Restriction endonuclease (Paenimyroides ceti), 568 residues
Amino acid sequence: MMKTVKIKKYSGELQDFDMNKLINSLRRSQADENLVQHVARNIVDQVEEGMTTKKIYQMAFNMLKSRSRISASKYNLKKSLMELGSTGFPFEKLVGKLMEFEGFNTQVGVIVQGDCVSHEIDVIAEKENNHYMIECKYHNSQGRFCNVKTPLYVQSRFVDVKQRWKSQVGHDTKLHRGGLYTNTRFTTDAIQYGTCVDLMLVSWDYPPQNSLKARIDKAGLYPLTALATLTKTEKRQLLDKGIVLCKEVYENPILLEQLGINESRQRKILDDSLKLCSAINTLI
Amino acid sequence: MMKTVKIKKYSGELQDFDMNKLINSLRRSQADENLVQHVARNIVDQVEEGMTTKKIYQMAFNMLKSRSRISASKYNLKKSLMELGSTGFPFEKLVGKLMEFEGFNTQVGVIVQGDCVSHEIDVIAEKENNHYMIECKYHNSQGRFCNVKTPLYVQSRFVDVKQRWKSQVGHDTKLHRGGLYTNTRFTTDAIQYGTCVDLMLVSWDYPPQNSLKARIDKAGLYPLTALATLTKTEKRQLLDKGIVLCKEVYENPILLEQLGINESRQRKILDDSLKLCSAINTLI
């Protein structure tokens, strides 16, 4: 029989524990349905009045991890993004790689002269006649939303840069567009404003069919912080070298050698990296 | 003989103690020149290697206060603004009053529908054909500057609101302008951008001839936190009632009665309030 218990959200608010919500969240791990149902039943048995969603999430992650490290990594994507560090740079790099996957030529962290002042643009992306200026808003804790002030300020930067772009040779026929990526969420008025002025907005779960999580799944561009076999210190050491993606680890196995990781762990890590990079193939 | 000692700035940086700078800062107290010179000589005798500017400022304030509470209050204006509290509301009110002094009709904290979203505008000010939308950026600690992101976001808000204003009856011939007031300072690129897009920018010391401090001196619109005779608790109680200015205290002596302040202190406070309110008359 279903228990009806109240659990505590990140915000401190209480809400009824919802089995369907749990199952949906588990499905994003792309684990097979048997494992999803198995974990969900186990959680239902253990969930108690007043338990935090964080605790429930942690239990689910551990159960998944014991059966499938890759599913656990996928389930853990949101948290892996929060582990990219206190600066926004790895996130900008990830966004650049996602746009490359979509066929754009990109530059990350470029100083660009606008009409009034110069700006550091996180990602400039070009494909045929499309010329995008992307701002990345990175938060390393849950519940920090991206409010309307960010698209407002991004729009002014974009307008300032666009004036200058338009005056360049061959630019008058290009489609210029500003954009804003965040690893958390937009407030309602941030989406309302951004949509109204035609900024491209991407957040953890927006737009629903082409959100950040959907794009990462599709491209298989998981951050290396998703690798359950790496220690925190090893992740930090790789990030400090400017390495951000599982893919980069897989393509440069020498990196693991340099960290002094033994051969059997190296194999495990490379194996997981490959499975995460090639996520798209398993979906097709 | 002049000592050459290094003193420590708010930023932690060391710099040579500069007698002329001290004298200039003392002159903004509008104390008579004898008192200015007297305090300056006293400070020179007491200043020591590595002393902080904060300590030196405090000594100067105490010396002024013992001779002239009003001069001390004027000298202390910047700090009085920092004492307005953790929310920006008293500062918005002060800015509204300053614009009224300049002949505008003002509204403070108004929700306005823009073309894309609605905005809470700190101060709307109108005079003849001029229709201003002012954002107030309040900081309650030293060294927090207003960087370029603020005028960038203010400009987008202004553009969004202006679209709507322009469509209103009789508005097509009006001059619409955005503005930004801060009690601290703008970074160089904030001034460069704001000037380029024609925002009206006012900070503690910008524009030089018509800065926030100059406007407050001219209007005599000192915040009640400048009153050296009120305790911290009394200031907080008045601010909590929505009272912000010395002028309001002077015009409503019942407020002091309500706080349970005895008659002799009431007289002292009202006397100081009057002298601070009428600053302009003593200057003309």
About this structure: The CA atoms of residues 29 and 75 of chain B lie 4 Å apart. The mean pLDDT of chain B is 90.
